[in-house]
Amino acid sequence: MPRKGGQPIALRSPQEYNDRATVLAGANMTPSLEFLKLYGAGPALSARAPGRVNLIGDHTDYNGGYVLPAAIDREAVVEFRPADDSRVEIAALDLTERAVFDLRELKAATLPAWAKYPLGVATILLEEGHILRGMRATLRSTVPIGAGLSSSAAVEAAFALAFCRSCGLTVPPEQLARICQRAENEVVGMRCGIMDQFVSFLGKRGKALFLDCQTLEHSLVPLDDSRARILVFDTRVKRELTGSPYNRRREECEEALAIMRRHAPELSSYHNLTVNLFKSLAHHLPETLRKRARHVVTENGRVLFGAKALRAGNLIAFGALMDASHDSLRDDFEASCPELDLLVETARQSAGVFGCRMTGAGFGGCAVALVALEHADNCARAATAAFKARFGKEPAVYSFSAADGASLEER
Ligand code: GLA
Known about the structure:
disordered N terminus; 411 residues; alpha+beta; 4-stranded antiparallel sheet; binds alpha-D-galactopyranose; 41% helix; 8-stranded mixed sheet
């Protein structure tokens, strides 16, 4: 519930919250000029794709469950010029690094970490029978890296569009999302679900995206930014998801499902696991697996109710579900950390906060709060002060608006 009290104060604009990160991300550069300098001609096209913040429904996507993310107004931008050879040359402008690979001989081993995403996308497109051509490209991004805001999905989606456009391929966005997910699973080695890539392609301005990750049925849900602001606190606790407990959690969910299926063979995935069926099967599971499965089944319910609450404009009900989601991720899924818990606790005690939870994979990364417009600044200040007092450093604070999914532009 939004708490009463606290004086309304002059509100910082989203731009002010975001300025610092924009400067850090090097957005003052003139990328087309950089392109010209590198390749001797300007770019022909550019592809952009956003990061995302997940409002509710974490660790459900790879279990065939439900999610409710929104694409954010931070994006990866690939400027490119299709080439008549099979070489892909990419300059990552923010990192001042370059990577080159040949489409006839795709090898990830010697490439910098970021280049494995475009390489992965090219690998899967080729595997699926598409014929690709090389390109000269620059990459820059304003999505904070390693923060749980899907900077990697943004890069994958932008390159997927760039490769397709270079060869005149029209692949539906749902299929491109699958291709990008396969790239991450099979080439990068992160066994992520479909959420990040899906919303990076299909997000819409002013809307959250409700997605059934089993059937890929999806619908848009209004996000009324005249009443509430999406604040995101980045703990800056970095985690490499390929080496994090993420893959282990996924295995635990699979183990739990396998045990439950021995007793309920009709159960094909968490998609058709009701709370009642789970209760009747829970005693077959060892403690840890029981907790993991309980998170998934209850979180699925929260997403379904959450989508309804948002459609009805009931931010109080939605916020309560966000709070319950965090508690479940912390206690049952054990995907939180002290930094996230402190941010969540402080934000929840702040006036005007509907709800707050960790977002994304967890184990570090970000917390998201839904805050009444006039209280956003106070909430940001309170959480920042408490975090600094406890951990001796400030979290990054962002205010995001729901943005459109990936798109192409002629240059
Ligand atoms: C990461 C993955 C997603 C999803 C979330 C947790 O962001 O990339 O597929 O599993 O974690 O909800």
